[in-house]
Amino acid sequence: MTTRFSLSELAEMLQVPVDAVRRAVDELAAAGQLTAESFVFADRNWRIAPSDTKRIQEWIVNAATAGVIQLEPPRRKWVRKRVERPAEDGAQMAEGAARRAD
After folding, report:
1. What are phi and psi of 37, to 5 degrees?
2. Lowest mean pLDDT: which of 12-26, 35-49, 56-70, 84-98?
3. SS3 label, residue 48
4. What percent of the chain has pLDDT over 90?
5. What does the alpha-carbon distance between residue 55 and residue 24 come to, in Å, rounded to a whole number?
6. Could you give the CA distance from residue 8 to residue 46 in angstroms, rounded to a whole number?
7. In the prediction, which pLDDT does 62 show?
8. Mean per-residue pLDDT for 58-71?
């Protein structure tokens, strides 16, 4: 049985974003340049044959140098959680007493 790669596995091997691999596979498939060993199933999921990986890699390199696609390494999202320190206990007690007096 022939080993086939998913889009994410191929993207990890080539160290490019999955979107770039998906676009390359879609373009090459539309042009009829992929072998019959690579096929699509379940609408958008591809199984890529090892014989097509070099062709996909060349398409990505050519498209990147032509400016058709941009290859940027994935960026991590930094989320800073900002926690406000509570007011001093004395100040809170005075506020609470003032509210009760109203």
Report:
1. -75, -20
2. 84-98
3. strand
4. 16
5. 9
6. 10
7. 92
8. 86
Nearest alpha-carbon partner for 63 in 37, 11, 28? 28
Q: What is the dihedral of CA 10, 12, 18, 22, to 10 degrees?
A: -10
**Distance between CA 35 and CA 50 in Å, rounded?**
10
Q: CA–CA separation, 12 vs 28, rounded Å?
A: 19
**What's the Cα-to-Cα distance from 18 to each of 8, 37, 41, 63, rounded to whole Å?**
6, 20, 17, 15
Q: Is 75 helix (H, G, I), strand (E, B) or coil?
A: coil
| H helical segments located in 15-88 | 18-30, 50-66
Q: In whole angstroms, what is the distance from residue 55 CA to residue 48 CA?
A: 11
Within 8 A by CB and 6+ apart from 92, the residues are 86
Confidence of residue 24 (pLDDT cuts 50, 70, 90): very high
pTM value is 0.65
